[in-house]
Amino acid sequence: MKKYIKYIVLGAIVLVFLGTFWHLWKKSRPETVEYEEETVVRTSLQKVTVVTGAIEPRDEVNIKPQISGIISEIVKRAGETVREGEVIARVKVIPEMGQLSAAQSRVRIAEINLKQAQTDFDREQALYDQRLVSAEEYDKVRQALAQAKEEKSAADESLEVIRDGVSRRNATASSTLIRATVSGLILDIPVKVGNSVIQSNTLNDGTTIATVADMDDLIFRGNLDETEVGRVDEGTPMTITLGALQGVQLDATLEYISPKAVQNNGANQFEIKAAVKPQEGVKIRSGYSANAQIVLEKADSVLAVPEGTITFEGDSTFVYKVGEKGEYEKTAVTTGLSDGVMIEIGDGLREGDRVRGNRKFDEKKR
């Protein structure tokens, strides 16, 4: 029995030794690496940059009142189209007490002067009819009466404007009627009925009653990095895509590059503006976020391979060309424009050549 146990133990030791030897031998085998292979093709390449920005009207006009008061009525709503001269809102005038008092005082003085001028004229008229005064003196008194009447009319009109915001003589041009100064789409009406508004003058910007813009004249506004701004010029075509409208692409033309950089997250960027060509049937709202694609460089009908096939050694570039017997031949090449996927080949390869690509898989030799 002991003899059999001895043989079993010895056999187990031999198996462990052989297993260990086989495992070490297998790990020491050289690896066989296989690669995908790519074909040199003739194609066109573009280097494109994407600029993030927004679509907005070229000009937005703020409509402001010419008098101070309270909004009594809003005739239009945001989103409606308005023509130049159309009424947007009405303002009820709240007169300033100092101005109102001065205007009332002016009316009273004008009434006194008119009454006196009328008395003088009646007296002079009687004397003139009796040929007791000259025509020259009579004309002076008559002129003074006319001036007194005109002053009374002007004082009444001034009081009406201060008290009511409009006079009977100029009712059609009332400053209480807030009218559109341009034609376009009303983007916003930030006031409500009952809000107080301040007139626009040299000392005050005034309260904005409405914002109006021509939505057929749109621009794209964004910032271009300083590393790319030198590759574009005014007149460069662009393609605009909108985040809110999937599948819509608009053509645009670059028309402005800021001469001064702005800091954005530590990088120097330059503001750009591009005129957007409207597309029939596409409704665009002011402030839509958008991406602009700009072609920085372009190469037509050039030889190209995937960038992953290129090997860089110092200042030199190589590919591993597939030889006649399937072996890989290290071949020097010159490269050009890259679009991030394909890269241009200047010299070293011909159309239809095959080159080693990315590593496919590894396996042990059996």
- Please state how the strands of the largest beta sheet are arranged side by side: 2-11-14-13-12-15
What is the number of beta strands? 21
User: What is the total domain count?
Assistant: 4
Average pLDDT number = 84
- The SS-based structural class is alpha+beta
Question: What is the annotated CATH architecture of the largest domain?
Answer: Beta Barrel
Rg, Å, rounded: 44 Å
Strand content: 35-45%
Q: Name the CATH superfamily classification of the largest domain.
A: Efflux pump adaptor protein, beta barrel domain
CATH third-tier fold name of the largest domain:
Elongation Factor Tu (Ef-tu), domain 3
In whole angstroms, how far apart are the ends?
42 Å
Largest sheet: 6 strands, antiparallel, barrel
Order of helices and strands: HEEEEEEHHEEEEEHEEEEEEEEEE
Give a structural overview:
- The model has no long low-confidence stretch (mean pLDDT 84).
- The protein starts with a helix and ends with a strand.
- It folds into 4 domains: 31-45 and 300-364, conserved putative lor/sdh protein from methanococcus maripaludis s2 fold (Beta Barrel), CATH 2.40.420; 49-57 and 215-298, Efflux pump adaptor protein, beta barrel domain (Elongation Factor Tu (Ef-tu), domain 3, Beta Barrel); 63-94 and 171-213, Beta Barrel (OB fold (Dihydrolipoamide Acetyltransferase, E2P)); 97-164, Orthogonal Bundle (Helix Hairpins), CATH 1.10.287.
- The chain is built from 4 helices and 21 strands.
- Helix content is 25%, strand content 42%.
- The strands form 5 sheets. A 6-stranded antiparallel beta barrel has the order 2-11-14-13-12-15. A 4-stranded antiparallel sheet has the order 3-10-8-5, with no helix packed on it.
- A hairpin with a 6-residue loop joins strand 12 (237-242) and strand 13 (249-264).
- It has helices at residues 2-27, 97-129, 135-164, 226-229, and strands at 31-39, 41-57, 60-63, 69-74, 81-82, 87-93, 177-179, 184-188, 196-197, 210-213, 218-225, 237-242, 249-264, 267-276, 289-306, 311-313, 316-322, 328-333, 335-338, 342-345, 354-364.
- With 366 residues, the protein is α+β, with helices and mostly antiparallel strands.
- Helix 2 packs antiparallel against helix 3 (135-164).
